[in-house]
Design brief:
Helix content: 10-25%
Distance between the termini: 38 Å
Mean pLDDT: 78
Radius of gyration: 22 Å
Number of strands: 15
Order of helices and strands: EEEEHEHHEEHHEEEEEEHEE
Length: 280
Amino acid sequence: MLATKTDAVPVGAEWSHEVKWDGVRILAEATDGQVRLWSRNANDVTVAWPDVALAHEALVPGSTRPRDLLVDGEIIALNDRGLPDFRVLQDRMHVRRASTATRLAAGLPATYMVFDLLRVDGEDLTGLPLSERRARLATLDLAPWQVPEPYDDGQMLLEATRAQGLEGVVSKRLSSRYTFDARSPHWRKLAHRHRRSYVVGGWRPQEGTSDRLAALLVGWDFQRLVIFPDGSGFAESLSPIDASPFKRAFVAAAGPLGPTLVGSLLILASGRRRSWRPAL
């Protein structure tokens, strides 16, 4: 079940609000002690996340954990600022060799944030309202998986996530039933966006091409900002300089556009996606 974009956090007692994590959406199924992880495209990605799958056993001696379980959540990893960051996960998410995944997990540990309970001990809960699924989820011992708290005040959470540098807010109607592979108006997401004007000094094509963007060079307040596309958008590297960035070899090699094109760069707080729009 996917959220629909919104421009404002919904208000009212019928809504619950959660932190929007900058991670990888995953369904986790635990049956008789074995955990399998599924991507949004229904691919088995268990091998890529040994620290998530192997660290959690569906049933251990003396434990009250359910024998059968299906939950929805998001795998996150922290960047050097201690914030969830999708880019940190990119080296891990497509790994299909167990030895490589184990090595990466040691250096880039991941955490599974569980926000919905879909099945427990053979009982399908998707037809129940979210409020009941949440109540059932809160009674389970899923450690080391984490179950983040929901909030009643969406506007408060929006301001708090903005101040803390988190990605945004997801709001969910408490009466909503869970539908697989559907984008629902009963789940709404709002990501923080920041806008600033830059001067484009040059660009560089991808290796072996002449029309596919590899990097932009833009100037802002006597600083150099090189923006590189990646699998989900642009990532940036910012460092101060003491001279115009447009006189450097990068621009000469790229083919300078000249410092006359001014545009607005739309940036998500997480740095996950970027879009370029010329200023009018």
